[in-house]
Amino acid sequence: MLTKRIIPCLDVTAGRVVKGTSFTQLRDAGDPVELAGFYDIEDADELVFLDITASSDGRDTMVDVVRRVAEQVFIPFTVGGGIREVADMRLMLEAGADKVSVNTAAVLNPDLITDGAKKFGSQCIVLAIDVKHKESGEDWEVLTYGGRQSTGIDAVEWAQKGVELGAGEILLTSWDADGQKTGYDIDLTCTISESVSVPLIASGGAGTLEHLYDALTEGKADAVLAASIFHFKTYSIRAVKEYLQGRGIPIRL
Amino acid sequence: MIAIIDYGAGNLRSVVNAIARVGYKAMVTSDAKEILGADVVILPGVGAARDTMDSLVELGIDKAIHQVVASGRPFLAICIGLQVLFSATEEEGWHECLGIVPGTVKRLPEGRKIPHMGWNQLEQKIKHPIFDGIPDNMNFYFVHSYHGVPEDKSVIAATTDYGISICAMIIKDNVVATQFHPEKSGEYGLKMYANYFKMALGDKG
Question: What pTM value is reported for the model?
């Protein structure tokens, strides 16, 4: 039976992992290669590296990080942040990443998904979607630029379109829930998961073990991504996995 | 020498890295002569079987693969590499493949998430030195939307359960093929590579 995946997310800038309590308070959290190795030993199922640098120097540094991680960590990993064209994808994949995630650039230019999928296969292309509740109504809309820009695009429609265009997986982040530690948006997660044929990674809002359990059961997510509960060592990956296995979720341990 | 066939799909680095980790050196090549001169040949794979097959034919590597397989030299195929060994694939219509393993590659049936993506248990169907030190039902990393269905079931060395039983590994004479990615399957994936090269190269490595 396919196991549910537990995925820590690492924010990288200038070759270091940072953790923040808000956008402005970033603290150094260590060497990405060492941290990746640590999560690997703890039985993380995959890793996501988010490049939060904007400069081109930063890009070269990120490629170097990807290369060093690939030499030492033999589990799948995704690189996201600043992937704007097929050339960016190629750079990361050739350095050793298994998948790339696209977000704002795909909203601005949906062909990017198709072009990437044609070139490298759908399994390589993760569509990251940031959403929040619409101010009126029950639906959700897509946000871009790291949650700063509303688009008016319906989240369900965009997820379905993204899959049609060739995305092999959806990484769904609720901006209403993100950082709140009050749990994943279960209604949203379940709605999107049931409206697409590809696997869905739930993100945003994890605070307790129960939250992860809920996302994987009621939320129908295939994987859960979390950052702060792992970085701040609220829970170890192993503790999360033992808990979930104890509650009957298929888990790799 | 270990030759990894490069047909332009990119992302061969993880295979190179895994081989390096278990103590061997591999070269990446798309040159038929180098492929024919190697002690072990690896056909890795990501992407689409149809494109892979087209690239192999375009580069003239399909013939080299047939020669290597016929010569009895160790040949390892991974993921899409396994799929193109079959007679044909249903991917994007109907496309002829290498025909080394009689059978067809079919799309995973609806009613589940596709691709089949993540860690799933490898059920060993035969006793073989490639499984040395790897307990039955350990998790390996899969990512695929199509699966190979061999006519001769005796070539199936391992399966995995995704609502249906999927052929996860084929061993046929000098050919070993995996639908999963050993280079992304952590400790046991590396162990499988180590077992494989020990078998394939003996003292030559």
Answer: 0.95
